[in-house]
Design a protein that fits this description.
alpha/beta; four-stranded parallel beta sheet; 56% helix
Length: 181
């Protein structure tokens, strides 16, 4: 079984692209669309193109900008409650272990990827689960149901729902794992 969170989902779909699904028992993707950018307003995306371009150009090309971006993202997107200073410091410091020139390249690469074919293959051949943050659940769930009708969906918390709601998250994951045993 492969489990990916955020851009880790890109790695799971990358595996499927290279190796197929034959060696897998199931797949879980935590809070990332297989196509992070689209001009279709009904698609589940990371944000409008102008917003994504602004994040890249205004924040991700310097260490200070990267710090500011991660702090904003942690505070506004990752969790729904107020983070303690210690939590915010830890999240930002973990993110800053990746230098800005690498983080910006990874961000751009991730935004411009399209894993619809791989997600379709997973949907057609494996038990799959997509756990989606509440802030875009309406769009994301309908997008998943339209394109990947066999993939189960669950909605919980912010982008770091496993951090904010560990018991609920672990139960969702345990129930899925039990169902594919």
């Amino acid at each position: 079984m492969l489990v990916g969170w955020s851009f880790g989902c890109l790695e799971t779909w990358g595996y499927v692209k290279q190796e197929g699904t034959q060696a897998l028992k199931a797949m879980v993707c935590i809070d990332l669309s297989p196509k992070p950018l689209s001009v279709n307003p009904d698609d589940w995306v990371e944000g409008p193109l102008d917003e994504i371009a602004d994040a890249y150009n205004s924040f991700l090309l310097s260490r200070k900008g990267q710090r500011d971006f991660v702090a904003y993202y942690a505070d506004e997107i990752m969790v729904q409650r107020e983070l303690s200073q210690e939590e915010m410091f830890w999240i930002v410091e973990q993110s800053l272990k990746t230098p800005p020139y690498i983080a910006s390249a990874l961000f751009a690469s991730g935004m411009f990827t399209n894993n619809m074919a791989e997600a379709t293959l997973v949907d057609e051949t494996l038990p799959a689960l997509s756990i989606i943050a509440e802030h875009w659940a309406d769009t994301a769930v309908s997008f998943m149901q339209k394109h990947f009708p066999k993939t189960r969906t669950a909605v919980l918390g912010g982008h770091m729902m496993f951090w904010e709601h560990p018991e609920k998250f672990n139960q969702i994951l345990a129930d899925f794992i039990a169902s594919v045993q």
